[in-house]
Amino acid sequence: MAATTIDPTSALVLIDLQKGIAAFAKDRGIDEVLAHSERLVAAFRERGLTVVHVNVTGGAPGRTELQRPPRDLPADWAELIIPAAADEVTVTKQTWGAFHGTELHAELEKRGVTQIVLVGVATSVGVESTARAAYEHGYHVTLATDAMTDMDPVSHEHSIARVFPKLGETGTTDEILALLG
Fold it and tell me: Where is the Isochorismatase-like domain (predicted)?
């Protein structure tokens, strides 16, 4: 379903818009994702709505068949590309999703948030995992589809076309900004 409304207690959640992850997405439209994300950040800030910056500094310990990033990451790996303002929430995660093992849900509850608008990298990993958990926590979920990218274009399209409509509403940055009024 296309985005229909933005609750007056919404939060914008930026997933893994950090130097280390963005480097992997340099050929996958990261500049456009960042431009759209910055527009959304400005609009949420202007309206006094919650903005949450999420970065990742580790990974779940389980075995996988796919290679993981190296353990000795560059010093600026987790540095946010869009800096958080003093009153904004920053969450550092160790797994794909931003809810597991973090204070994200508690921070959103404390602020009375009922809806989250998600942007970030990677669509099929951090964004999708966070969207699933947000849906399971009872939040209204809106996904800004032009403010996210993935290193795998097929996975990106699958998440947008097949998964996200089951978890919430989707829209472009312009559509979401129009709903913000």
Answer: 10-175
